[in-house]
Specification:
Blueprint: E1 5-7, E2 10-23, H1 62-74, E3 82-83, E4 85-89, E5 99-103, E6 112-117, E7 123-135, E8 139-141, E9 150-152, E10 159-165, H2 172-189, E11 201-210, E12 220-225, H3 228-247, E13 255-260, E14 265-271, E15 281-282, E16 289-290, H4 293-301, H5 307-318, H6 322-329, H7 332-342, H8 347-365, H9 376-387, H10 393-406, H11 410-416, H12 425-438, H13 440-447, H14 453-464, H15 471-482
Parallel strand pairs: 12-13
Antiparallel strand pairs: 1-2, 2-10, 2-11, 3-16, 4-5, 4-15, 6-7, 7-10, 8-9, 11-12, 13-14
Helix pairs in contact: 2-3, 5-6, 7-9, 9-10, 12-14, 12-15, 14-15
This protein binds adenosine-5'-diphosphate (ADP) and magnesium ion (MG).
């Protein structure tokens, strides 16, 4: 499938590079001890450093460094043992320092790459340019007073990791898959909660268009996209806008744009500032960040099994399809759940139950796996009841529905409702005989060659047994008795 776009004058290719701002999970801010919890009273989590009181000095939070290094390693990227914090100077009402402490020439993490799974089954490599640490800004609140803007500094100074990709993506779909993958990795290693609604993960999308095979075109940067849906819409819209401008004989100026989800369009915010506009210089209040080999090795050792490795293991160890495995590994708690269910059991059966039955119900009610009313151990017990023939697969569906609603265990439901599978030959034979005796005309039909009637007889016997007769035994006895 080609991702080329059709214009009036021929085909175009879109080129996308993403900057992801990920809020680091840490109890304190990057350079102060103030708390970082989301949703606190405005200005209740602000130290004198965050408010930029004169004479206050920043002190680097080690946890933020640990998280950045762990993230760099998880993104297969080079860790820079020597990096430098720099001041990025600009004026904004919610930036009390008058500059943001960031990293510029020497970021803590350099180049790397990750693999993304495209919907058509292909694997694509997306290269990472860098990852650096920086402070978040505060927040202007325009909706609190008719004529005034209020400032909430709770977010001021919170640690962000900015993860910059190379311009490797060629469609909005690829951009969405890339962000989803990065988010999944961050959540695995617990360096960012990935919550886009609360703003702990947001993206800037750089978009340009070109004729296939040409040099890169001029890019526009769309700021602050806080959902995957908006990311997709903004990219698609922006690429078409640029194509129209160029086909009309215009030029794309490099600029920063905003996406308006209500109108479904991007609009210009400001012309793009160049790095020299920011007057970057090393922050004289902070020493360079020098990391020892031991520190980096310890961070490496602290990483859990990552999604790609886990996916291959599900394929090789449990014999799952690559597709099922990729669905299961997207979230760590999901794959943990699956492995608990699958352990010592038929893994493919377990995968079916988790993906179709459990996800089906959880999605309907919007419940996360962690809050599933059916815990992994309980689902495992249900599968055991199928494997040891206590209940049929068909009855198990009803038992599962009951477990999901009541939170009761499988065995208790089977006993209370008398759902145990009947495997006693005598009982089943009698039920089969009764159905045959009651339908002599159909027996004649069958014997005359209408083989399909076996299905109908099966249905009658299963109904008579309230679904509890062992289907394989019914089938066998039916054929035996009906043939006379
Ligand atoms: P800045 O700090 O000005 O935003 P960076 O170099 O840090 O610039 O990153 C800009 C982003 O733009 C990167 O993700 C990069 O991949 C992307 N990018 C660069 N050139 C293009 C282009 N021609 N089209 C699309 N994206 C681009
Ligand atoms: Mg940028």
């Amino acid at each position: 499938m080609s991702d080329l776009l059709k214009g009036n004058t021929g085909e175009w290719e879109m080129v996308i590079g993403l900057e992801i701002h990920a809020q680091v999970i840490s109890n304190a801010k990057l350079f102060s001890g103030a708390a970082t919890a989301f949703g606190a009273e405005p200005n209740s989590q602000v130290s004198l450093v965050d408010a930029a009181m004169p004479g206050m000095l920043p002190v680097l939070n080690e946890e933020s460094v640990r998280q950045a290094v762990r993230t760099g390693l998880a993104l297969n990227s080079k860790i820079n043992h020597h990096s430098v914090f720099a001041r990025k100077n600009y004026f904004y009402p919610d930036l009390p320092q008058g500059y943001q402490i960031s990293q510029y020439e020497l970021p803590v993490v350099g180049e790397g790459k990750i693999e993304i799974d495209l919907p058509n089954g292909d694997i694509k490599v997306v290269e990472i340019e860098r990852l650096h640490l920086e402070q978040d800004a505060g927040k202007s609140m325009h909706d609190q007073h008719p004529t005034k803007t209020y400032i909430d500094l709770n977010r001021s100074g919170v640690t962000l990791m900015e993860i910059v990709s190379k311009p490797d993506m060629r469609s909005a779909e690829e951009a969405v898959v890339y962000v989803t993958k990065v988010r999944s990795i961050l959540r695995y290693i617990e360096s960012c909660d990935g919550n886009m609604q609360e703003g702990s993960l947001r993206c800037d999308a750089n978009v340009s268009v070109r004729r296939p095979g040409d040099e890169l075109g001029t890019r526009c940067e769309i700021k602050n996209l806080n959902s995957l849906r908006f990311l997709r819409q903004a990219i698609d819209h922006e690429a078409m806008r640029q194509i129209e401008v160029i086909e009309d004989g215009g030029l794309i100026p490099q600029e920063t744009r905003l996406y308006d989800p209500d109108k479904g369009e991007t609009r210009s915010m400001r012309s793009k500032e160049e790095a020299y506009d920011y007057r970057y210089f090393p922050d004289p209040d902070l020493l360079p960040l020098d990391l020892s080999e031991d520190f980096v090795a310890a961070m490496k050792a602290s990483l859990p099994e990552l999604p790609d490795v886990r996916k291959s293991r599900l394929v090789s160890e449990f014999g799952l399809s690559a597709y099922d495995a990729s669905v299961l590994v997207a979230e760590r708690e999901t794959v943990d759940y699956f492995e608990t269910v699958a352990n010592g059991r038929d893994a493919k059966l377990a995968a079916n139950w988790v993906i179709s039955d459990l996800f089906g119900r959880l999605n309907k009610t919007g419940t996360p796996v962690s809050q599933s009313p059916v815990k992994a151990e309980a689902l495992g017990e249900l599968i055991d009841l199928i494997s040891d023939q206590t209940i049929s697969g068909r009855i198990a569906k009803d038992v599962f529905a009951d477990m999901f609603e009541t939170g009761k265990g499988a065995a208790a439901i089977v006993e209370d409702k008398g759902l145990r599978q009947v495997t006693d030959t005598g009982t089943i034979r009698a039920q089969v005989q009764a159905v045959i005796d009651a339908n002599p005309d159909k027996v004649v039909d069958y014997r005359a060659g209408n083989q399909k009637l076996v299905g109908w007889f099966m249905g009658q016997v299963m109904q008579a047994s309230q679904g509890k007769a062992n289907p394989a035994m019914v089938n066998q006895l039916l054929k035996e008795i009906i043939s006379g």
